[in-house]
DNA sequence: CAGCATGCTAAACGATTGTTCAGCCTGCTT
DNA sequence: AAGCAGGCTGAACAATCGTTTAGCATGCTG
């Protein structure tokens, strides 16, 4: 039944999907042809269609694969454990890039993933607030949403962050660690020492309202 | 010399560029054909090439246009004034989308823009530190870089943020304002009440080092 | 007035695209 | 042994792609 004619231990179908995931993530789905994917996977273009019906089907399969990775193996799981999730996004560069593009392209799966992140984050922050480890806020929803967007920002801007930090490889651990440390520092001690920024924004807002 | 045969007050060349900017921003350059741009601008496909030499040239022109908007009219300006810049990114949806994609696609102009943002932000934060309005940090570079990435995050995730906040239109002012307020709150008062998050990360880091 | 550059179009070019088709090979089943 | 299902390929399909060409119209310049 199983025809393992490749040297890899992966199914041919999986190899095609992985190749597509990587190329889609790097160049965007529109810039990648079925032939390029077939070449990268070492198969014929016809086989790609044979396994995934169409290019759209292949893109959906990539979406489903990434969604599965993030949701975890069990279907009833809303989300992976945060630690495993962080490790996943840290280690797999193709998944990072694909996800970043999916968020921008507005795919339904990416939207569901984002919503899941926000839900988990909001309850987590709420729990921390009860414990006293997280500061209260008058807009928990907006805070959770923005917190998620901020956590995902390095996923989109990793190239630029690494370049600004003077690192050649955007994916060497040092870059990620420095960024994480700086982020935790900002979210723990804050950036603005007093309420001047908030006040300035409030007054600017009032002026705009009156205008 | 000037042949204004269109009802608009824009040059035909500018209309083509604007159409390209919008379509590129929405779908990505690879998904948009010259014919689609020509249709949107109300001209023939050949005219697009006539004005911009090639599709790549059109993409470069869009890059240059956005760069010009951000840098300001004068060439010696490193960057627009923050207020005008914020207004620009707030009001022009096509520019937002185009920029977001440019950051992800890793265009050279987008990289230069990001670097400029970081430079301005870092000196601005440094000044604030001297004034006492900004808290000190042991990694000013990483903080400035991440600050920029966080400020740009809504540009990429605006659709998702608006959806999570229960708003239909991602670009109605309410969405932006709520997000800005939440962000300022997080950067002023912090999110974590004590050093537990930083400490947890430090110990996890130590474990990983020893492993 | 002629001459010429410029804005612009219609038509067509070859290349590449996603997709289909006919058929080969392999391994399992009966 | 016969037959069949499935992985897989090469060749070809029509459509669309970016680009080129020839030519029309306009308006400036000599």
Estimate what percentage of residues of chain A fall within beta strands.
under 5%
Q: What is the H/E string of chain A?
A: HHHHHHHHHH
CATH topology of chain A: Tetracycline Repressor, domain 2
Poorly predicted runs of chain A: 1-8
Number of domains of chain A: 1
**Taking Cα atoms only, what radius of gyration of chain A do you get, to the nearest Å?**
21 Å
The level 1 CATH classification of chain A is Mainly Alpha
Question: How would you describe the oligomerization state of the chains in this entry?
Answer: homodimer
Instruction: Please count the beta strands of chain A (DSSP E, at least 2 residues each).
Output: 0
Q: Which structural category do the helix and sheet elements of chain A fall into?
A: mainly alpha
**Largest sheet entry of chain A:** none
Interface with most residues:
A-B, 67 and 67 residues
Based on Cα principal axes, name the global outline of chain A. Answer: elongated
Q: What's the name of the CATH homologous superfamily of chain A?
A: Tetracycline Repressor, domain 2
How many distinct helices of chain A?
10
Fraction in helix of chain A = over 70%
Nearest-integer average pLDDT of chain A: 89
What would CATH call the architecture of chain A? Orthogonal Bundle
Distance between the termini of chain A: 73 Å
């Amino acid at each position: 039944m199983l025809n393992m004619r490749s040297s890899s231990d992966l199914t041919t179908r999986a190899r095609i999907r992985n190749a597509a995931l990587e190329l889609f993530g790097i160049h965007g789905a529109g810039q990648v042809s079925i032939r390029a994917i077939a070449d990268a996977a070492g198969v014929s273009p016809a086989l790609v269609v044979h396994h995934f019906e169409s290019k759209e089907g292949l893109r959906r399969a990539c979406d489903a694969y990434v969604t599965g990775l993030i949701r975890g193996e069990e279907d009833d799981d809303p989300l992976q454990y945060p630690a495993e999730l962080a490790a996943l996004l840290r280690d797999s560069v193709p998944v990072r890039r694909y996800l970043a593009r999916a968020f921008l392209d507005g795919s339904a799966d990416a939207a569901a993933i984002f919503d899941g992140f926000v839900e988990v984050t909001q309850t987590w922050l709420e729990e921390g607030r009860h414990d006293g480890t997280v500061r209260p806020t008058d807009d928990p929803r907006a805070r959770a949403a923005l917190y998620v967007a901020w956590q995902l920002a390095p996923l989109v801007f990793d190239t630029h962050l690494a370049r600004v930090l003077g690192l050649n490889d955007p994916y060497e651990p040092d870059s990620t660690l420095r960024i994480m440390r700086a982020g935790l520092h900002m979210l723990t001690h804050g950036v603005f020492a007093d309420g001047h920024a908030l006040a300035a924004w409030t007054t600017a807002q009032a002026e705009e309202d009156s205008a």
